[in-house]
Structure formats: C-alpha cells, structure tokens
C-alpha cells in the first residue's frame, strides 16, 4: 500500500507540473497575442496655435463655431479658448498671453508663425505604463509632468502629460494626457456646437516628409494594419489612412505646394482636423459648405481656410 501511495503521489506531482507548464505556456502565448493587438486611440483634443487669441476666436465665431475662453495655463505664459463637442473632445485655440511667445514656450514657433494646427493629444488611463511601453519600442519619450489651468470661474483642472518622439509635443506621435481632476473641469461642450450634429474631433491629418517612415512608425507603436493609400491632388497630398483609427498621414505631391512649404517652415505636425458628424447633409447645409469630396469612401467638406486664418478644418461623414 505504501509503494502504491508513493506512485499515486509521484503521478499527481508529475501531472501538476504538466498542467502548470501548459497554463504557463498558454498565459505567455496570450500575453504575446495581446501585446500585438491593435491599440485604440481616441483624440482628446487638437491644438491650434495662433499669436493672438481675439482674432482667431472671432474667425471661428464668424464661421458659426463660437469658442469659450478657457483661462491661463499656470505653468506656462499661455492661454486658450475651447471649442468643445458632445463627446468631450475639443479644439484648443492656444496663444501666448502676450505676443510674441516668450522663449522656452514649447509650441512658441507655431504660435508666433500663426501655424494653425500644431499638436494633437490622446487621453490615457495609465500614462506611466504607456510611456514605459513606447520607450520599450525604442522611441524617445519624456517622463510625465504635471500641468494645470484655471478657468475664469475659478475652476482648476489638473493633468499629467508626456511627450513621445523627438519633435515638438504632439507633432507626429500624440501627446499623452491623463486627467487628475475630472475631465469636465477641462472641457464642456460649447453652446455653438449644440444642434449641429458635429460629434467631435474624429481625424487628425499629419503632415510628414516620408510616408513610408511615418507608416512604419505608427505600425510599430500601435500594431495597426497597413493603411489605405490615396492621392488627392485637390488637397495637394498623397494620403495614408489607418482604417478605424483617427490618423491620416499626408505627404506633398509637389515640391512647391502649400504642404511642402509648411513642412519646410514648421516641420512635421498636424496640418488639418476633421470633425465627425452624425448627419453629414444637415451639417453641410448648416455651415454652407460649397462642395463635397470623398476621402477613403467617406464624405468630406471643408470650411474656407481663408476665413479661418489659414486653419484647415473640415467635417467627415461617420
């Protein structure tokens, strides 16, 4: 009986080791699969850089998009107005408190140059973990730091941010943001966007010098499938769209185009923002868009950039 009992014990121990090994292999395999899964990004906000706040606010108001003064940043001599949408994404109209921007302001060259679109931001739940993940891919990152802004009513919003890549914050890879205070402290839907069917900042168009390099970067960092590529002479660019994401990359079609000149002046950065709409026809009628084009089988219309200080802002059918 003793020998038999020893046999049973040895057998149980062996089976346990086999099961433990199998479970370990399965867990490791699952972790590897999860690590390679496409990562979802949702735009928190797009940044529009101008030298003075009043004129750009008025230009947006004249287009039917009245923004709300959002207050001063406490860690930087800058201020902003907010055009908030129903999904709580927004466009931030950022300027120096006094022009020109003081030396050391991160987006100062964009502000002084009235660049318009200059950065984009995504919200993450664990900024430290995301920074660590991206750094592990060989991408330069900066440790998260704290920022805050006080609204005219005294509401103080606080958040952490972190820059990815070697360029200015949010130039190509997004600037990361994690709220400390409730998100509603930072943004609320603006009265001017209610009833417009405009849902929020849906697509960021990023100007890049090398399309293949840009595609490779986003596929490496976010595990996205290969994009769809189209040429759009009316926009002056060859576009690459990562379907189901908020990112379109754009490279100039000609050396003397507006996009080539912008890249030479400001470097890689967002060049346009597209707002989503739940009713494209109604939104187009409301803003009296002159024409509609097709990008990747989706309807797109644009506000007149000449009336928005050169800012390229459009709507895209959801």
Q: What is the second-level CATH architecture of the largest domain?
A: Roll
Q: Given the helix and strand composition, which structural class is it? A: alpha+beta
- Quick one: CATH class of the largest domain? Alpha Beta
Number of strands: 16
Q: How would you describe the shape? A: globular
What is the CA-atom radius of gyration, in angstroms?
Answer: 24 Å
* N-to-C CA distance: 74 Å
Residue share in helix: 25-40%
Q: Helical element count?
A: 8
Number of domains: 2
Strand order of the largest sheet: 1-4-3-2-6-7-8-5
Could you spell the SSE succession in H and E letters? HEHEEEHEHEEEHEHEEEHEHEEE
The largest sheet is: 8 strands, mixed, barrel
Low-confidence stretches: 1-34
- Beta-strand content estimate: 25-35%
CATH superfamily of the largest domain: 2,3-Dihydroxybiphenyl 1,2-Dioxygenase, domain 1
Could you tell me the CATH topology label of the largest domain: 2,3-Dihydroxybiphenyl 1,2-Dioxygenase, domain 1
What is the average of the pLDDT values? 91
